[in-house]
Amino acid sequence: MTGGDQANNHPAQQTGGKLQGNVLTPQGWVRGALMFERHITAIDGVTADPVDNQDVYILPGFIDLHVHGGGGKDIMDAGDAVHVIAAIHARHGTTSMLATTMTSPLSDLEQALEACGDACRNRRPGAARVLGVHLEGPYINPGKLGAQPDFVQEATLVEVARLSAMAPLKLITVAPEIAGHLEVVRTLSESGMRVQIGHTLGTYEDGVQALQHGASGFTHLFNAMTGLQSRAPGMVGAALAHARYSELIPDLLHVHPGAIKAALRAIPRLYCVTDSTAATGMPDGEYMLGRQRVHKCMGGVRLGDGTLAGSTLTMDQALRNLVGLGLDLADASQRVSTYAADHLGLEDRGRLATGCCADLVVLDRQLNLIAVYVEGEQIDLTAV
Length: 384
Prior knowledge:
N-acetylglucosamine-6-phosphate deacetylase; metal-binding; GlcNAc_6-P_deAcase; Metal_Hydrolase; TIM Barrel
């Protein structure tokens, strides 16, 4: 592909495992060709600024570490739900994801984890890779449930180990102020598991202590945590002052654009998640979020009392929202892909380089998806 006239005809198609356009590599933009099978085999081209041409963009596939649902299905539905959800999100550019649970009775959680474990072992055609599970609860503060139902309990290492045997737990959200949780945070972090602070009434000091004990970041920054005040900086203050990583929901409903910009300046590797629910990709109406009934209306998802309850955001829209806030495309790409991979310690995803998984998205100049590849497989973006 060369020149602007061809770009309007969407020339970036899979042809013998070769894509042409503006390729975003870890070293910057290259105008040329990317060759791949299941993994990227070569990138050939010359350094070039995409502003100087009209070719398509080729970016790393999106990585979403907080996915509750989509297509009318919720992770807590167990059974086939996780496969349906992974397919819905793949059609919006998500190539890897963490299936995210809700606070629930242990019997519900166990059923969901068994299904997620199967999905981690067996990616179905047309679906995103399920890397593992984000356990969002039940180890949270009952005073900061947000949209989580009240089945809260204290964390124990024995129980976490038992749950981890059902599905790979990659990320756990914990309220660090609960008695005994700091030592759990330390032990899990030392084992290589990522522990995030969230759904918490903890103070600034609680947040600093948790980070010192190995906590790696914060769950949906600003939401379901104590806010920043001048003499009580709260958990938000701890994140802005000390965090290297944190997730944030950039649907422009959960967090004001000004707060997003403040977090972008303060947290070096702020990355984006959808916190998507069963209502994602569905018409307005009533859906389930774990055991909670939620309502989709006017682009948002809420409980009956008006509390925000996840989102209908997709990662392609998250990218467009970030660019709309003023980020350049390369920076925005890192925040929907690379930094999430780095947070989990994944060196073969979230970047376009020889030897990495062929997880790719191709976008036109308006940042609309043209093509998505998961481990080299082209996803049918029109599938129902």
